[in-house]
Specification:
mainly alpha
Length: 135
């Protein structure tokens, strides 16, 4: 099975088409919420097999919504080439926390806990003028 064709044609007309197909904006919104919750609840390295979670008549809608979700998720998810499997690659919040800790440690190392950093390190790059370049 190859569902990749459903990830194309992302113009606003598909939203109207599926709202009409589902019968109301409320049903469309509920479907969106269900897909987003399903993806949001995936654990890191967990895979979602589309055919196990979606009725065949909803493959296109599911893939389009999943594509929208993935595009706004800081690249935490990926599709296989056939768009039949969605995998959560990492947790963006956890990654941000780890990077922030790394940045704090790096900053402390540069400045030095004993104040041994250079004047530029202690005051910040903008506070100390840069020597004129000999070039």
């Amino acid at each position: 099975m190859n569902l990749s064709e459903h990830a194309t044609g992302m113009t606003s007309s598909w939203i109207e088409r599926f709202t009409e197909k589902l019968g109301s904006e409320d049903k469309f919104t509920t479907y969106i919420d269900n897909v987003y919750k399903l993806l949001d609840n995936l654990k890191v390295d967990e895979q979602l097999h589309v055919e196990k979670w979606c009725k065949p008549e909803n493959y296109e809608l599911f893939i389009k919504l999943a594509t929208c979700y993935v595009s706004t998720s800081q690249c935490c998810y990926s599709f296989n080439p056939e768009y039949t499997i969605i995998k959560r690659d990492f947790d963006a919040r956890e990654m941000e926390k780890k990077l922030a800790l790394f940045a704090d440690k790096r900053k402390a190392k540069i400045i030095g806990t004993d104040g041994s950093g250079t004047e530029r390190d202690r005051k910040g790059l903008e506070a100390v003028s840069t020597p004129a370049s000999p070039v």
